[in-house]
Amino acid sequence: MVIVEVVLETYDAVDFTAWPIAEPLSDRLLALSERMSLADVGTAMAVIFSYNNIPVTHAADLTEAHLQRHLAEAEGLSAPGGLRFRDTTTNVTVSPGCCFGLENWRDWWDVARGQESWLGHDPTPHITHVGHVIQLRQDDEDSLSIEITRGELSGLLATAQQHFSGFLGLAQQWAAVTTPELADLLISVLDRYFAITEAFSSSGGLETQ
After folding, report:
1. Which residues lie below 8 Å from residue 26, measured CB to CB, with a gap of 6+?
2. What per-residue confidence (pLDDT) applies to 99?
């Protein structure tokens, strides 16, 4: 069975003290989903703030003007991470590559449509299309692969969106306690720049309004 996780690298949360965060995992990859603890959500938010160079020494320091000014200067948000695929039968794992970014997670729809897509490096996800079957490998093109059909990948991407949306719901709870005056704006910003809840069209792309 192949499963998918939306993961965030947590190196940027090291020494973060503006609000409580969870103890880091050994592989430094935090799975985002509806099953997270609020401490884990705090870690994810710490990564997003630190990675995007949004200065904050305490949650109470955050203001709408502060956040809006940064977003205007940076033209958005990004975060280290992406989608991690794992075959629970063979224990083969394909993790997101460096420089791909969580904000690009929907690019996997290009793969589901049979297209080639750059998915990062070090570790490098290798994609091979064999008819309607997709072979996913990590780094070495001769390594063991995860094999799924395009239809199965589409289903996994829908699952990934459910996990990501679950994280957003928990982030709403976290923000209501940690940054109550900014909660609605913060959740709107996360949803917009990480393209979390926007519906997919039948062709796999974003629906236009």
Report:
1. none
2. 86
